[in-house]
Structure prediction request, 1383 residues.
Amino acid sequence: MQEWANQLCENRQFGSKMTDSKYFTTTKKGEIFELKAELNSDKKEKKKEAVKKVIASMTVGKDVSALFPDVVNCMQTDNLELKKLVYLYLMNYAKSQPDMAIMAVNTFVKDCEDPNPLIRALAVRTMGCIRVDKITEYLCEPLRKCLKDEDPYVRKTAAVCVAKLHDINAQLVEDQGFLDTLKDLISDSNPMVVANAVAALSEIAESHPNSNLLDLNPQTINKLLTALNECTEWGQIFILDCLANYTPRDDRESQSICERVTPRLSHANSAVVLSAVKVLMKFMEMLPKDLDYYGTLLKKLAPPLVTLLSAEPELQYVALRNINLIVQRRPEILKHEMKVFFVKYNDPIYVKLEKLDIMIRLASQANIAQVLAELKEYATEVDVDFVRKAVRAIGRCAIKVEQSAERCVSTLLDLIQTKVNYVVQEAIVVIKDIFRKYPNKYESVIATLCENLDSLDEPEARAAMIWIVGEYAERIDNADELLESFLEGFHDESTQVQLQLLTGIVKLFLKKPTETQELVQQVLSLATQDSDNPDLRDRGYIYWRLLSTDPVAAKEVVLAEKPLISEETDLIEPTLLEELICHIGTLASVYHKPPSAFVEGSRGVQHKRLPGSAGSGESVDSPDTGSAAGVSEAPPAVIPSQGDLLGDLLNLDLTPPTTTGPPPPTSGMQMGAMDLLGGGLDSLLGGDLGGNPAMAAGFGAPPAVMPTSFNAPVSGGLDDLFDLGGGVGMPMGSYSPPKTVWLPAMKAKGLEISGTFARRSGVIQMEMTLTNKAMSVMTDFAIQFNRNSFGLAPAGPLQVLTPLSPNQSIEVSLPLNTVGPVMKMEPLNNLQVAVKNNIDVFYFSCQYPISMLFVEDGKMERQVFLATWKDIPNDNESQFQIKDCHLSSDAASNKLQGSNIFTIAKRTVEGQDMLYQSIKLTNGIWVLAELRVQAGNPNYTVSLKCRAPEVSQSVFQSYEAVLKN
Amino acid sequence: MIHSLFLVNASGDIFLEKHWKSVVSRSVCDYFFEAQERATEPENVPPVIPTPHHYLISVLRHRIYFVAVIQSEVPPLFVIEFLHRVVDTFQDYFGVCTEAAIKDNVVVVYELLEEMLDNGFPLATESNILKELIKPPTILRTMVNTITGSTNVGEQLPTGQLSVVPWRRTGVKYTNNEAYFDVVEEIDAIIDKSGSTITAEIQGVIDACVKLTGMPDLTLSFMNPRLLDDVSFHPCVRFKRWEAERILSFIPPDGNFRLLSYHVSSQNLVAIPVYVKHNITFREGSSQGRFDLTLGPKQTMGKAVESVLVSSQLPRGVLNANLNPSQGTYTFDPVTKMLSWDVGKINPQKLPSLKGTMSLQAGASKPDENPTINIQFKIQQMAISGLKVNRLDMYGEKYKPFKGIKYMTKAGKFQVRT
Prediction:
């Protein structure tokens, strides 16, 4: 017995020597030579050992390519293991020894005919891995045979081989018709073959974004769904990912696919689960929400997602990134699962941060107490990054759930009391946000914040604190001291802090001008004269100008009411979110970027969209057209771009008086800049600014432009005209400005033309008074327009029937149509006119109020309005102020209606009336407007949204003109 | 698809590389090493790392990083799941998955990796099939092979791979037919300072060891299947039958496998088997802190709580701990500040406690963070969720197998905040 045990012991030692680690120990020189000898040995066993040694060296990255011929010689063997080892070697080194590799071709061809399917499959598999161009041609025939092999094991291996070959030589694969064979394999009887064919086609399709390789139709879908139940887990992933690209014809088909995919949610492989979630999330879009099945499906999605979170941290991370998307798209799925996102102290940091993010997204009034308790707990953890994010999260909760704001603030105050430096700083940053969201509510805490002023060393926290002090300067007794303390090290601060400090002190000055004059001068000079930062300098100058010219305006600008900050700051933009939902489970979903943005050479720009929801009635053919269908057609052709401005007015060469130049000024800002040159600053500074070259440069630009627009004959802003008194009677209906002189007699050999435009019962009229100030009679009047923005043209000849005697005036009314040639003018409503009489041809230009072009059927349906408003990008929105208007909102609405500006809806929010209005121009452009009227405030705000934003400025002018008359 | 695989050990050396497509230079791992350096703890290395031309997806198992390199859009979970499968296979073949074991068996490793993936597509990942293709190394076989010159590589086409039940090989024969099932539940919980449960959930699995001749068809039914509303099955389980009757019906793979895993969510009432009374305090200005911990059993249905191990990461300011356990032994590592107390079994009559003082750096301020207590334990013969197997039946074969079922409850991530 003892002896037997001893023997066993010995065997064990023997056995341990037998392990492969011995292959690693031969590092002596001459090793290659030794191996070579062994490879050429007659003894089979020795050969095999030698090949093993070679493989081992290869594995650890040693170069054993010199042995290529010797190893290839061992290939012709019956020993399967040896064959495999040689194949391994070949795959690694064939590329560096292409000529030698050809020697192996024959063996491959022979092995592809072997009676053993395992050998056939092995040969076809290895062939594809030899990435040598010369060899691939020889491999086509064997591959073709293997694709039709009787044994499915060989077929499925061959399917993958097509993808390999495609990677090496795409053209060859197409020429040989392998792609078609591969497509046929989707209908193979064996599910594994189907899965591999799908996988291969998907991979090939990645490099051919436009090819229609995976042509999905109900029949193939059915095939895939059948194979889905029977193939391996990996095959299921490929099939599910492929299914996700399909767009069902209707909700019934969508539901039936969902039903067949749902069982995959219970699969042990998390990748299968997530791919199934993708298919369901996408196809769910098509299901009507009132369907019972829709609710069932929503319920079924939660458990598998929760289960993913109990897996290993790496899986959790990917799952969490995807859940983040799902929660944004369909918060209802996980709204009751808050607790699974609670952080365990030994979660890896990347899991902790993701969980925190999702907790905030799921936070609601119902669970906020729990969430806050957790967040407070996290704020005492060890990991600094995590603690910071937790503190920030508390702030985000306050902003998201209004009812919790108070509790959040008190939690933050508790945290500030801990005096842990980075906690305090984060807390101050978020409290700033809370102040912005809920102004004038929590200012009682300012005192506590100020106590911690000295401990702040991070720019963001310092900037936040300065903002708070500046914003609430009137409530902080020693605000000037506090800000002054920051000012000492002004140039050492980061830009963020410098900018904030500048603004903060200006705010303080505007609130307490008496005590802080010195301070503001100090900061302005620091910002403008001693700083190299252009942003800072610019801001400094702007404040300087504002303060020096018009302190009232400065107050309006600097202390203006700030827009409230939005609830959730980092929501993914909806179209991107839709695309990402279509890519659940992919790298794109982990990075929250569209796949086109980062994966090299894949898919090109093939964007995926969620299919339209049921009930829209449209059958969606392809994912690409899916989203476009719901949206109204492209905007009507807008004015052609500005071409030859000097145009072909009467085919004569003339220079119109106002062709270029910026649109007239609309706010006091530019005016201020003008005055500034006049030395307005001096009042503040006590002169001698002129010597500052930076200053001069900074101010040089605006005035250079201004005069041109002021000197224009029809000077900027119709409002200028109205100061004349507007005595001309206004007919019922559309507003018409009073007549102005268009063509002075001086310029036209005694002919003076003044005029205006009016719209009467749908017809645009050009009303002119022609006065003869010359000594002779004028006859033979004719008129013609240059091409203009809206195609205005005389609808008939100028009716001046009797000759015009000296000192005689005549009133003419010329009907216009809008079918003339179109060219974009600058400004848009500029019209160049030529008038001829018996003496000469005269040219002038005038501007028509764009309200002439507002048509009578410009009232939009409410629904359409809403949709259009959303649909027009925010970039196209422009906002204007109408000052000193004392009409009530109803009166304004009536007045505007007279000019074909139609009020569609009215809403009252906090004493502010919002009128939603629509306008249609003669050329079919729609302008949507939101007019905000606050009782007691003579300043109206009008926001204009239009697909052709160029018209906004002119439309605004019309608004102003109409409202003020 | 998966391009290459690098195995990296704890000290940052690549000790194995495998390429399924063209060779990717190992310098791509530099990006990984950078991330590794940045991470404070080994497990904090992010699982997905972008590089200019590739993506690195890694898992950390048994102190080895398995780093997969991909070039095109591939589902990361697919890669991670595959890497798990690689780890499992190594463990299955070599008993342990360590650098030494992998190096010792490098040829088998290489053969396995080659079989598992073809051009980046998973090929054979089922342990049953792999074992038919490549026989696991055993001392005896290695000897025999050395002497006779035969090989580890099977000569046969793996039969299971093409059948309707790809997870089971044909022609299985045993003299003793047996089927054993282990119901193992892990309870994850967060308990707050005051002892109330913040969240508690159960991750359960049913692992099977089935050695049955021929093609047996088994059904397993439960007393209370309603507990299982969130389950993941082995592919052998017939899903339709489960949906309709809540019965597990399946043709089992041969040998060891995980039949199902399930999750009992925090929305159900989860019993908490132990409680902790703790008092860990530091006083301002004092260089001493008090430590007082007592454990006791709670809802255990009369079963003993065993193998109890308490660990806690004490605040950084703690220099040393001078404690007195009523039973078991404790250690405190002054470098990592990790306190661990091996309690053993909880005796309900005499509750185990650990009391004493912690010394702080003189003059240092009171630590900010509250240590969290991590508890491990085992309870035999009980599934804490209350899940019970009703019966196991076999169809399709004539013999009578031995059947057995075992229950066990373990602590998963069981944390008590202080």
Remarks:
- Confidence is low (pLDDT under 50) at residues 1-18, 601-605, 614-732 of chain A.
- The CA atoms of residues 398 and 408 of chain A lie 6 Å apart.
